[in-house]
Structure formats: C-alpha cells, structure tokens
Amino acid sequence: MNLEGLRRAFDPRCVAVVGDKKGNDYVWLRSLSTFKGALYSVQIDQAEIRGIEDMGIRNYQSLLDIPDPIDYVVVAVPRSVTPSIVTDCIRKRVGAATLFTSGFAETGTKEGVGLQNTLTRLATEANFNLIGPNCMGIFNPALGLRHDINQYYGEGGEVGFISQSGTHAIFFSLVGALNGVKISKSVSYGNAAVIDSTDYLEYFAGDEDTRIIGMYIEGVKNGQKFLRRLKQVAREKAVLVWKGGNSSEGSRAIASHTGSLASSPAAWDAALRQCGAIKTDNLAELVGCAKLLLHMRAPTGFRVGLVAQSGGQSVAIADSFSQAGLRIPTPGENSCREFASFFNVIGGSYGNPMDISWHSPSINESVRILDVLDHDGNIDSLVMELSLPFLSQIWRYYPRYVDDLVDALVAFKERCGKAFLVVISAGNLEMDACRIRDSLTARGVPAFFDFDSAALCLKRVTDHYLSGSSPS
User: Fold this and answer.
1) Whole-number mean pLDDT of the chain?
2) DSSP letters along 305-350, please?
3) Neighbours of 3 (CB within 10 A)
4) In sequence order, which residues have a C-beta less than 8 Å from that of residue 99 and are 6 or more positions away?
5) 213, 251, 282, 347: which could join 262 in a potential S-S bond, CB 3.0 to 4.6 Å?
6) What is the largest CA-CA distance in the chain?
7) Of 37, 81, 86, whose CA–CA distance to 57 is shortest?
8) In angstroms, how far is the first alpha carbon of the chain from the final one?
C-alpha cells in the first residue's frame, strides 16, 4: 500500500471515470456530479461521448491526455481492458483506482483468476493502490464523492466504514444516516487483490475525521497481520466488526462473491474479543452500536433502569434486557419514597421496570421519573419506551404533544449523568415512529424500534466500555 496515494484518493481534488456508458445511465458520472473538485471522463466510444458532454463533463480519449494530476480513478470497463487502464493509471501517477469491473478471481475460472493475477502483479510492482476489483470504491460525503446516486453529500460524520461488499457499504451509509450515524469516509474493496482490510485499518487509524471504525469482512489475506493491526487500532478508536459467512451457506456465498475464504465463527469471535473490537452480526447491530457510541454516555455498569408505558410492555422490555445479559435491579429506597410522593397511578407501579401507565402521567411527571432513576445509585443506564398506539390518543387532542415530548427528552438527556436511550414501539404507526426517531436523532438522542435490538446493542457497548479495552 502507498499510504500517501491512498490519502489523495480519499480526499481527492481531481477524479476521472473511465468507461461510463449510457446503457447504465452514466451512473458513475451522475453519482459524482456532486463532487466538489474537477471531474473528467475517459471514453473512446463516439456514441457515448455526446451524452457525457451534455452533462457538462469534459471527455478525453485517454487518462494520459487529461492535463491535471489525477488523485482518484473509477474504472468501469470490460475486464479484458482493465490491465491497460491500470497501466495508464500507474503512468499518470494516480493516487488510487477503484476497479468496479467484476469477473475476476471470484468466478473461480482460469481466465478470471489469471486476469486478477495480472492486475495484482502490475499494481504491486509499481506500488500502486488498486482498490478491488469487483467493488464500489470510495465515499467521502463532505466532498460529494459518491458511489451511489442515493447517498448524501455536503456534510460528513465521524464513522469510517471498511466493507468488502459494495451493497453493505451503500446500505450502511443510508441506514446509518437515518440513525444519526454519518460517515467520514468509506470504502468498498471487493476482491482485495492488492489492498486488503488491514491496509484500510491503517489508513483510518490515522484519519483525523474518523472517530469510530466499522467493518464488514468476508475474509482476510493474512489473519495474524490483520489481528495485530486491529488490536493496535482498537486501542485508539472503537472498532465494530461484522464478519460475514457464519453459516455453511454464507461461506459458499462468500466464495462466489469476493473469492474470499471463510473461517470459523468461533475463532473470529474469540479473536475480536482479544483485540478489543466490538462484534456485530448484521447491519442493524452495526448501526445500533455505532449510534450508541456516538450519542450515548459511556455506561458505568450493567444495571439498567427501564420505563415502559403499559404492564405488558414492562414484561417484554424486562425479558429483552435481561436475556441480553443486563441486570434489572430494584430501585433504591430513596427512589421508591420519591416515586410514592407523586406517582400513584392505578395500574402503574414503581418497581423496575417502571410501568407508568400511558394515560396518566404528564410529560413533566414522566421526565421526573427519569430524573429520580438518574440519581439512583442502583442504576447505571436508562431506557425509556414510547408506545405510539397509546400516545397517539394524546396527540390527537394535543397536537404539540410529540414536539414537547421530544424537547423534554432532549433536555433530560443533556443533563442526565447516565447512559440514556429510547425505544419506540410503533404498532401500525411506522411513519410516526420514523418522524419521532428522526426528531430525537437530529438532537442526539439514540432511538430504537424494538426492545431486543436496543438491549443487544446496549450490552455490547457496555461490554466494550467495561472491558478495559475501550479507547480513553
């Protein structure tokens, strides 16, 4: 890996796309229309050039004809042409190139494997940063450098993402943004013919815009080297790892997806623990844990105070958080005395979980319950359920109820000395749930849509903070 060249590619001033075509709706050039720097096209097919120039993009017959230094190149040409394009990138001293083209070692064919070996030899001999093949490449939202037309741009975040899958790279950017998890930079790297996950870890470890690192991995070239690097990086930044291929069927899919070799799930789990990384099993967990790391105070223990809005939900929330490995202690005597002074709703209770009975307490009373638990020495973290089927009966007559509730929860979170999150039980009110989630997320309150996901993510993040391996 040429680290300086990789830095140029992640923060480019000049980008070129080779081989974009009308048949795919010029998807690369349209995605990169938001790029803040200079954007060029390389296309020799005269039937394609008119459409490119109609978009206001200057086209050249060769990379070597572009007058500017080029930091990053996207290559979308037939696989037989890729060696000559990579050769031009090397001659042009490009920082790095993403090879979107597929059909290489992941096919298992002699021709595909041979072509990938040729590309690997060309890039390795020249110390050139070849990303892929069979991948989507780099996303830098602050610069408008996108690999999908649906991705946001104009403002970046604090999470770097390293993904062997292009789809997971796109989904993490989109789902993450909805949950207040915005990306500093990300990379989809596919077959990893030259640059592997270990190299990207090194880059993100030194990237000042990145505070948390997320990873989706199918396999690594050198396991020992990867784990050494992961252990070093996890001392400085929180690292979340989703390892794909934990079933025999998933392992078979990996072989045909990126040509990687899967390894034992148990071995991976043990290695991640030893390295101080946070294990996740899917996209939702990856986003959920990142959300808590970004927007929640560090938990100081495993004891959780739960507030539910009905008796049945109080049972469900207790089961979810207990089964995740968290403790649900009884509130202290002082807390119980204070609850008794103002909270005496028929059908409610002030144990743990707190069943506050949806129809009775005002917003002020609900937040007062949270305040009492915040000062309870038996509690380390707080979870508040919002049950929308019940609350909708209030906002029907009190239209400002949701806005006032969000304001109150945000104010509580800002003064609360403990980890705090919200679970929104939607019922059939999914659109309202998203609206409330978005309002809370925009103001730094982490919100989930089900008890199990919230409990699992809280447990994993708490484990991380209390293991002694979390960055200081």
Assistant:
1) 92
2) EEEESSHHHHHHHHHHHHHTT-B-PPPPHHHHHHHHHH---TT-EE
3) 12
4) 75, 82, 86, 119, 130, 131, 132, 133, 134, 135, 190
5) 251
6) 82
7) 37
8) 29
